[in-house]
């Protein structure tokens, strides 16, 4: 076992971006950032990292096919060590949440339970697993808004809705890319049920819901926000269209549809941040 393995299994960039998204959510809900928002970053980053680790623990056999370079199949972290490490990270994240407020504590505990349930069972349940991941991603914004109370949480709901649908689309595309490994691991996903082509079409439809929701913040931030989000929407729609011609997972991977969709989601986070600061 190596330190690099324990670092990589947390997907540190992914966890850090999630933590930053929580701070952005607080900024959106209040128009400012205070030092205490570092607590938000810590809680979200720790629990996201824990979720990544526990997911790799349960996906060890599937990753041997889909992602053999991941720490567990690659031999840099054992499954037992991964389970213990995930438990430590979940405990740390929930402990830090005790210094926030009751809303944030509730979300931290609920999301931790959902992350474990997703990794252990929900991931192999068609559509339910996709919904769980989409909710977890969207709830980062709810968590950041909740730090300023119910009013803040309600204010960021449109951002959470945008994130939910965009992530739902990406999760479906990722499942389509991973269909061989999922079949080998005994998973039951939407692409396994209906095929890659129909899954990509389904993902495209859901993408349009994300685009529709993205217009709601226009009523807060005005024309400059609209200009920025239209550019992001173009990336997201283009990403979803890229895979339409694909009938195999290899074709879908080459299209980089899910990668472009992820880039579009990251760009939307930049647009939200700039709008909250300057508009």
Could you give a short description of this structure?
This protein is mainly alpha-helical. The protein is globular and about 50 Å long.
Task: Please tell me about this protein's structure.
It is built from 17 helices and no strands. The protein is mainly α and 279 residues long. Helix 2 crosses helix 8, helix 3 runs antiparallel to helix 6 and helix 8 packs antiparallel against helix 10.
Topology:
Elements lengths: L2 H7 L2 H19 L6 H22 L1 H7 L4 H4 L4 H19 L4 H19 L7 H19 L3 H6 L1 H21 L1 H6 L5 H5 L1 H18 L4 H4 L1 H20 L6 H7 L1 H22 L1
Helix pairs in contact: 2-3, 2-8, 2-17, 3-6, 3-7, 6-7, 7-8, 8-10, 10-13, 10-17, 13-15, 15-17
Give the topology string: H per helix, E per strand.
HHHHHHHHHHHHHHHHH
Strand content: under 5%
Q: What integer is the average pLDDT?
A: 87
CA-to-CA gap between the ends?
49 Å
What is the tally of helical segments? 17
Low-pLDDT segments, ≥5 res: none
Q: How helix-rich are the residues, as a percent range?
A: over 70%
Descriptors:
279 residues; 17 helices; mainly alpha; globular
């Amino acid at each position: 076992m190596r330190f690099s393995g324990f670092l990589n299994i947390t997907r540190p960039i992914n966890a850090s971006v999630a933590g930053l998204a929580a701070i952005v959510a607080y900024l959106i809900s209040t128009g400012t950032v205070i030092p205490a928002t570092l607590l938000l970053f810590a809680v979200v980053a720790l629990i996201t990292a824990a979720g990544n680790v526990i997911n790799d623990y349960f996906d060890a056999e599937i990753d041997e096919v889909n992602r053999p370079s991941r720490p567990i199949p690659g031999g840099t972290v054992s499954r037992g060590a991964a389970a213990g490490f995930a438990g430590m990270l979940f405990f740390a994240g929930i402990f830090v949440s005790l210094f926030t407020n009751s809303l944030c504590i509730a979300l931290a505990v609920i999301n931790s339970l959902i992350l474990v349930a997703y990794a252990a069972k929900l991931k192999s349940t068609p559509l339910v697993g996709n919904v769980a991941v989409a909710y977890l991603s969207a709830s980062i914004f709810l968590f950041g808004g909740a730090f300023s109370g119910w009013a803040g949480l309600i204010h960021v709901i449109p951002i959470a809705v945008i994130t939910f649908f965009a992530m739902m689309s990406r999760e479906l595309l990722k499942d389509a890319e991973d269909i061989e490994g999922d079949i080998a691991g005994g998973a039951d996903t939407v692409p396994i049920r209906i095929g890659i082509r129909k899954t990509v079409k389904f993902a495209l439809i859901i993408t349009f819901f994300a685009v529709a929701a993205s217009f709601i913040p226009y009523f807060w931030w005005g024309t400059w926000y609209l200009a920025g989000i239209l550019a992001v929407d173009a990336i997201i729609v283009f990403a979803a269209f890229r895979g339409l011609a694909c009938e195999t997972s290899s074709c879908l991977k080459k299209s980089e549809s899910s990668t472009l969709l992820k880039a579009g989601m990251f760009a939307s986070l930049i647009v939200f941040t700039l709008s909250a600061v300057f508009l």
